[in-house]
Model the fold of this input.
Amino acid sequence: MPDGTSEFGIGAKVLRKEDARFLNGHGRYVADIARPKMLEAAIVRSPVAHANNLKVTAPEDSKGRFFTADDLSADCVAPIHVVSKFPGHKGSDYPHLANGKLRFVGEAVAVCLAETRAAAEDMVAATGLTFDALPPAIDMIADAEPGAPKVHDDWEDNVILDSRFEENTDAFKESAVSVTRDFRMNRQAVNPLEGGAVLAEWDAREERLVVHSASQIPHILRNALCECLGLSQNQVHVIAPDVGGGFGYKCVLLPEEIYIPWVAMQVKRPVRWIQDRREHLVTAANAREHHYSVTLHADSDGNFIGIEADIHVDSGAYAVYPHSNILESTMAGRTLHGPYKMSAYKVRSRAVATNKPPIVPYRGVARPGICFAMELAVDALARELGREPCDLREQNLVPVEAMPYTTITGGEFDSGDYPEALRRARGLIDLPAIRARQEAGEDDGRQIGIGFGCYIEMTALQTSAAARAGLAAIPGYEQAQVRLMPDGGLEIGVGVQNHGQGMETTLAQVACEKFGLEIEDVAVRHGDTATSPYSTGTYASRSMVMAGGAISRTCDVLGERIRKIGAHLLQCDLSQTEISSAAVTGPSGSVPFAEISRVWYRNPEELPDSVDPGGVEAVSGFRPEPDNSPFSYATHAAVVAVDPDLGSVEILDYVISEDCGTIVNPMIVDGQIIGGALQGVGTALFEESNYDAEGQPLSSTFADYAMPGSTHLPVLRLDHLVTPSPLTEFGVKGLGEGGAIPPPAAIANAVNDALREYGVEVAETPITPRRVLTAIWKAKQSRLSSVETS
Amino acid sequence: MSDLTININGEHVTANVEPRLSLADFIRDHQRLTGTHLGCEHGVCGACTVLMNGEPVRSCITFAVVADGTEITTIEGFDDDEPMAQLRQAFHENHALQCGYCTPGMLVAARDIVTRLPDADEDRVRLELAGNLCRCTGYVGIVKAILSVLEQRCS
Ligand code: FES
Ligand code: FES
Done:
């Protein structure tokens, strides 16, 4: 376990190595790269949600600069096809360019190439499209039933997968109190500030395709390019340069990542496509959209018996590669229990295809929806029982003495004190003071409310779970390549991709911890298939756990080789040596790494014959043992003021008490949590990808898609519990996503607490002023009508 | 096509451009100054913020021809600028950036705040920043960084 003594090791607040280039305008994102004779691409996209008999008329004089699905199929380009091992899963092709049928507004139809983007967009405007419009499937609940318009003609209905999770259902009989509610988390968009971006060219000298893409998963993209284009792995080089945020959107394959490279090969010139914000909002980066009908059962003391639920997830028209279109529905179905103990479980979860863009796994994946449904149900139960919601939670959270804990659906919580996180959040936000303030009332007529949200997050998806689902990318042993450089510094290659998480710093800290190096002596290279070991990439809060673990293990291998050389130079036994402060130390003194390097690289004549010919460079790997995932958890607590006349919600206080195991860099941990929390505030209060009944997107700019800004979460206090995971190197747990998970739950519970006297419960995100006012109005109407009828 | 004379980062530039060309595209694609980023191209996110005659403008919704005869400063043009040096250091120390995509626009906006509003408090800083979106940081580090520079410049 790290002792915290190393200046740049695990636990040190090291300022980021990667900052300088961004601060000086020297970051290099895909759109910043230009190649000689490069053509720009603009995409013709479907104007309707559902149609068949698509016919495309090319603009005049566009020969060799205009490509459709016919051109792809003439060249035998294979479509994206995502499989799943879950029985009953309905598969479909995801055509790169629409082929006869249109399945959502914005689906790519044709590629236009020109010297400038503006000229390419002129070609788009001059392209003719005809088709026969069909009624669209837009409502995931109605359209899950037989007789709805079918998104895929050869399917029986639109249900992609119908999963049932049932355990010990007899126990429901023991319940004394039950609450039933409907909850909805609406569709939203991921919105990294940089959207998708691809620059592709055939390198005639290397005889390979070079693709720059804003990707979190360069090796998986290489797999897909090989599968779709029929190229061999050594004919494809994928580089993810600086990437302007990802949050999950960039851990799936975009059709553009296949057809733009293919087009570049056809025209034998570099081709660049830069997604604009409208394309991002409308065509590609949709997420969430869950509906829950939930019944939470408890005995008369408030002990949870179990949960029954019917869940729908609107997965959109296609399955994304490699994570499929059922990741959310199965996760929601299996882990709706959250951090609570219960003895009965009956959940049905359906992934439904609709004529909307495919959903992508966005920060937290299904968990913001799960947490929203479960935590709002807990508060509803507390109101029913007349209990303080916080106390009801404390009573039902998995207690520390039960760890490790097997959940009702077979999950394994590895470690942690869930009730303590709740108690600390309650203390920090000062629940009694808020209750007193509510008693006193507000001078400005607003209503104050307090809400809590507890969650668990399975981080670093394990091999067996991904294999069970049959995903196209199954993470195994994550690998790292660590090389002692000729000057005694270290260069590390990893297959994960850093797009804001600070991994050029935190992963270097792992090596500093192991060897006592200075941070500037360690360089981390990533995001390039030519220079790093294979990896399934960065997603599922896995990079620090997996790549950090791999670096640690590889340093062990490399360390022994370095010590062997050191032992020779010190004329002592290997067992008498150790590494500290970037030197090998033995009984007679120490030899710095720079000296070891000098001998290995520059004066090998000084090495003994018995030296390890593997040298001072090693590759090794790591995965948690046993093959389980470390679980992070937290309690978020929010205090809000709701204006019952305007419907506005202001966050007055916000507290997070979390446990991500051993903290590698406290500054970066805080940054990840805060950034995630504001995204969660966006989900809770602002962000919504609206569609009309025809499937036309209504949120296509930042003017009608509201993003959280600098004024929306002015107060935020963080508190850390540290329970090292028994499964990982140093005890770290994944952290990247967690901050975004519970804000919708905590904020909605706070709003409902504020409006409890009005008999109002909001049950849908985002909690816009209109929704608050509608809820208040409806509650008034039902009071009036009950007065009339009585 | 229209003729254009601009001083960019102290360099005198003449060009003949399409009237529809945006200032952002002129800066990025014609001048190859790629530090100025595009996050929305419709004037909301602020990633494309540059100084025109010392005032922040959104280069994505400013035509290049409108900038004729002006002085433009992009993130690459602040090498000898004291407030920018202070801000860069403060952004670094306060973890005010993650992916870095919003950062150039954010720094230009922040420089405007610290030079124009020496007495700004946190609320004012947050309000002034409302025209710049950052998807990564939650703004806490950015606000802290700006406040720390305001304090430095006061003393
Ligand atoms: S790119 Fe100019 S404001 Fe967003
Ligand atoms: S640092 Fe990524 S958008 Fe601000």
Q: What stands out?
A: Residues 96 and 142 of chain B are 4 Å apart (CA to CA). The longest strand of chain B covers residues 2-8.
